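Budget justification note: compute hours in this period were largely spent on complex prediction jobs such as the one shown. Inputs:
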Amino acid sequence: MEPYELTASEAARSIRDGRLTSEALVRSCLERIEARDPEIRAWIHVDPALALAAARDADKRLAGNPSAVGPLHGVPFGVKDVIDTADLPTTHNSPIFQGHRPSRDAACVAIARSAGGILLGKTDTVEFASGGRKAATRNPVNTDHTPGGSSSGSGAAVGDRHVPLAFGTQTGGSHIRPASFNGIYGFKPTWGAVSREGVKHYAVSLDTIGWYGRSVADLALMAEAFRLEGMGETAPVPLAGLRVGVCRSPVWSSIEPAGEAALHLAALRLEAAGASVEPFELPADFSTLAEVQDVIRRGEGRAAFLDLYLGDRHRLHEELADHCEHNRGITARSLTEAYDVAGQCRARFAGLFERIDVILTPSAPGEAPKGLHTTGDHIFNGIWTVLHAPCLAMPCTHGPQGLPVGVQLVAPRFADARLLAMAGAMAAAVA
Amino acid sequence: MEPYELTASEAARSIRDGRLTSEALVRSCLERIEARDPEIRAWIHVDPALALAAARDADKRLAGNPSAVGPLHGVPFGVKDVIDTADLPTTHNSPIFQGHRPSRDAACVAIARSAGGILLGKTDTVEFASGGRKAATRNPVNTDHTPGGSSSGSGAAVGDRHVPLAFGTQTGGSHIRPASFNGIYGFKPTWGAVSREGVKHYAVSLDTIGWYGRSVADLALMAEAFRLEGMGETAPVPLAGLRVGVCRSPVWSSIEPAGEAALHLAALRLEAAGASVEPFELPADFSTLAEVQDVIRRGEGRAAFLDLYLGDRHRLHEELADHCEHNRGITARSLTEAYDVAGQCRARFAGLFERIDVILTPSAPGEAPKGLHTTGDHIFNGIWTVLHAPCLAMPCTHGPQGLPVGVQLVAPRFADARLLAMAGAMAAAVA
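Corresponding output:
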């Protein structure tokens, strides 16, 4: 087994135990990228010398004081290119930011580094994680298909084992959907639990940083680095008796046969493994939340793009400039109404978990669509993003075209640690 | 009259009409700063050569195409030093950021520049606009007193006529309070209406960028640059019959005699000028909002400072590091409850304006306190910040110590243009 094949948690343990050096792991990842990325195109920028120097430094620090290392010690991670890095350019896949070098790391990058992580490189993204130009990234399972987006490169890089961990972002469904399309695990924490400082704004009351891994333990490792409440204090959850609410969600009409089959299969497998599985429905008025997400995204996008619209309009994609112009008639009034519906539903959401522990729901309509002109539909993600709820994508099965199809778990706000613990109990049964 | 004495709107008009050059105005401001700032200490960084070059360029552009200039053409502005500027260091008044040079302007700086404004320099601030180290700035009216904070330098610089416009920020009462203490006008727009990209995070669901001027027209000029909804389309408001609700607010027990006198005087003057003035009370349950503000500020502050806490703890002020440690027992549960109360009150707030057009309420307990160890109390501001409401500070009178005491106007979310129009009608009567 090559080091690049290890999950982040396996790699972290091996490094800590002295069975693997960070340098060997990083070198293995770099070789994998060299072999695969000409076809996959997950990465916009990789600096091998910089990553190797950081890895050697991590190896030295471990030798000096093995008890003082953080949870990610020596483990490389990728960063979606809408997130600032001081050592590498940050382009947002925008003509305006080509060659742009931020002066500091975004808070999430700094925290991952403080936890011992090694910045490997920047991954391709839809322009500003918003709209306009797509990533050049291809789905590693079938390169004729999209890896999803906007976190296209991060999803494909983790899926194709270029790197064990990577950051993405989600405003609608930019993080959870690519996890499903690439057959990997993805975690979007509660809104606000992780600082977005140094990350391009799109819709500030929705934008959330997430991360990808190849196991639930990988996701937990990063959650530990961010010191999410309850991490390290949450007991393992037994699968027996865990109450799983299967939620088709108010946008079920958008489901495809492969997505329906995955949800059904996950439910059956969980039930067979001892979980208590039952149907779960959101209250009827929650059905407006997909539209609410769209109004907030576009309404807040107006403020987010105004500086570029006024200062560099000809290089801002028409689709983004549009947020600053007629913007599909979204006004302060419709934005205010959307805020208030969102706020009311958020306040009621935790109360819906009386008879269930966790929601099981689609992570995407089905398999990754064909073509790189699309990143698929975020319709099964927007509702949960508006609710500020922690969401976790896990692999489940493959569709008729041989592409991965996952499912999504959702818990109440700030139940991040509990969601990770429940997912830890469910993953083996579901996959 | 020296050019530095002009308000922003007077200066903009004079420049547009060819009666004043931007260079002459900037030179006059620089001379004023040279004469006054050794005592006032409003500025952390001023680059005269850079500002003069930008002013000369503005003069040339005006000569070339007088019809194409923006609302702030040729007018200098100051920037609170928690806001990124590409040409000048951004220190956050923190030892961690000494000499730090961001690679790009914050969105608000870029937009002010797109509107023709000239960046004059960076103003002193409470550390990270949060806590810890105070600004060195003194109140221009009496240098033994604080100018307020955390937007200390911006408030004093506009008050002492170093610059006609300046940006501040508000998470609790960091913007409106200094306006009152310095005898100037201040505007805090609706939360989210102005991009905070490139501004230090503190509490992301509260942080708001505001600006100072020496007239309501100055505030409107900047609001135009930000294209706030309704600007340029809102008809002048007649003072006669304007329904003003005088709100002592649920924190009235913190009022001082000078604050009480100012509120009373403003109400009397407005009534004498033809407004319809009546008492106004917030519903009883709104009284928790001051506490809600504190919980959200501290709860979100935990995520905001974690990167510095983990990476540079010994240089992060103890008061800020505390957000990442015990944090006065604030948990995910108390933060969630605070979010929900805030959301419910926000949704109901506009409905309270059935019988009134605008709220008149204290902007601070009274005069600026003595000493630079304090910036005064934000107790009269936090409620409105939580409500995401646009707030406008206007001068009213002076207290027993000869220091200015203002009042505050508040309107429903996104009624920014209407609030500016109402304030335009009220200002002459109130002052």
